[in-house]
Amino acid sequence: MPKIDVHEALAREWAGTDLDATLAWLGTLTDDRVQTAAAEGLMWTWAQKDLREAVDWASQLLESEFRNKILLKTSKILATQDPARAAAWTAEFAEDQGRKEALIYAVHQWFERNATAAAAWAVGIENAPMRNEALMAVAASWANRDPGPAAAWLASMPADSRAEALPLVAGRWLVRDREAALAWVAQLPDAEERQRLTAQFSVTPE
Questions:
Q1: Which of 10, 27, 50, 108 has the smallest set of CB atoms within 10 Å of its CB?
Q2: Model's pTM, two decimal places?
Q3: Measured distance CA(88)–CA(128) in Å, rounded
Q4: CA distance 178 to 196
């Protein structure tokens, strides 16, 4: 079990008995590392007591690195309880690495509960970079279960949407069933994509 930072542990415990006092203390912290650890502890406890209120508080934080870390922490907590809501909420974040990590985590959790709904949501995202992130999360989760159908599903997506995810899925399929993976790649209609995957497979250990 990972060791919990002392400030995070303190905030977890204190928030359970006096949330307002914990929030006031959080506002007095000037060290970024300490403040972030304490806020993560606060969010952990707050989410157990009133998830909606915790999410609302995180949403109103001013744009900063601190805010991004707390949004990520909150999204992960939310994803364990309501991954569909977490994915939709995370999709409202500004585009950065934190948003990407939170979105992938939420979609993965959603896929584990309802694969069809998670895949349909990912496909329907209008923002192209965000859609690709969500498709990657679905593809990675699906490939862990059954890479063949995952690859076939990805192949039905537009080329720019599947460019990052398809090599990942094909690679996992290769590990499970090299012959089937190679046969599938050989029948791909896109010559450039077929060559790229074949080259990838040629340097992959048997």
A1: 27
A2: 0.76
A3: 15
A4: 16
